[in-house]
Write a structure and sequence with these properties.
The chain is α+β, with helices and mostly antiparallel strands and about 525 residues long. The chain has 13 helices and 23 strands. Strand 1 and strand 2 form a beta hairpin. The radius of gyration is 28 Å and the shape is elongated.
Length: about 525
Amino acid sequence: MRRTAINYSHCMYGILGMVALLAGCRLPQISRHFEHNRYLPLYDNVVYNDSVSLFFPSFGDVVYERDARRLRRLLRNVPLAPGDSLVLGGNTAAPPYYSFALMVNEACNGEMPSMDPAFFYRDTCVSGRWFKFIGYADGDNDRISVNKDLTDIWGRMGLDSLTGDRFGSPFTITGTPTNKLYAVLDNLRQFPAYTEQEQWNKTQLVLTYASFLGDHEAYRRELAALEARMEVDSAALHTLETVPKIRGDDALACIVAESRNRKLVMINENHFYPTHRLLVYDLLDSLRAAGFQYLALEALDPRQEETVNRTRKIDLHTGFYTQEQQYARMVRKALELGFTLIGYENTDPAIDREVGQATNLYEKTFAKDPHAKVLVYAGMAHIFELPDSDGRKWMAAHFRERYGIDPLTIDQNGFKSLHSLAEDTYQLVRSDRFDSHQLRSVDYHVINGRSVAATVGQEYLVYKNPRRDSVQVLLFLTDKPANIAVPMEVPYFTTIVPGRSKTRIPKVPGKPVLMVAYDRQGNRVN
């Protein structure tokens, strides 16, 4: 039996069907372990629980009731033996329909509940706890198929066996393009990490998806935790305090002036900082006027290059980081200005990534158009023009050596954690002011203090979230109905709105707008 569609609904439609067949009813208790349940859409629909070392894999169409009060109401007539309490409960949302519950008793010498023979029942004692697994076919569903499923679930259930190899990589959660970012973020937060490397992988993914959701408390908290671990060289800090800096619009004007006599400009970003994309957004008009006609993006999937240049539109397949709203905003503006987009990432594992990027960039631009003027937007160290301390050369160094074109390189990563010094604007500093070899690997450094909080116009609506739980609110620039527009569209705006609170939603005058909200399981809410 194979199931792939995971349903995150809060309903357990069929579980009351087994109530009538049970006798000797008592009010059910919710286990103290219930709040430790973590729900993950892995290769199976998995629940794990550290407090009882539980690993519980079910099928993809199983729905778990995550709210303790609703679970108690739905199972109020289910008889439990003294000391029994519910750890989890669920049912299927596709045939064959059945319901099940896992109970725990803190003593292994309690009494058995009175059980109708139509029920599936298994139990075991582990570490002094008595676990009981009950299931029943809903309605007239085939009991043979139901019992086969429940036997399979019971056989794969693990107790006292929570290890990393049970879960694989957190990257498995992020493999499918989606704009239900809050659901992905929630799943990543619940993903276990048993080693330092697993924790770092998880931290990177949590930060990435938190950043995709704009300016909200969760992102600020995650970023602050990361920045608390960053250190800036004391000599570099002293230099920053003493040397003159070019600020605000003057910084933008300086970059444009330097670019006029260059064929190639390279700007980098740190992927956890969507504000870095604002620098390119703010430069696009002036650089286009200065003759730049190509925008080369590390984040653009090379397989999507022809499509995006032909349609002048992006979607969730365009790339990974292009799914973030500020990146998407930057790309949309470039397309409106007439830029041709270039995807230059190396996809050949037999070629060094830096060499492959440099080669692809040249072949797609200057090799075809010797008079081209190209703006490159890359990640972190790829724009370094000098080798690192181990002699490794980055993309920009290979490009300059191989093709004799000296790029203007502008780094935003070196002082990323000092963004508060720039006071919601830009500060530009020449690299030759520093003694550090790494800091001198580019032409300029930018301290980017911009905020994404007010990047979309000045007119706002107020969105009120009446629910107890937080929701993700999304704005799409489309006149299509939600079932057609939403699945593959990159939102123009999205953020998390906490329960019982309100936030400002930007208006987009003169354009059709669709507003959608999702809960943290990815279910659409009104």
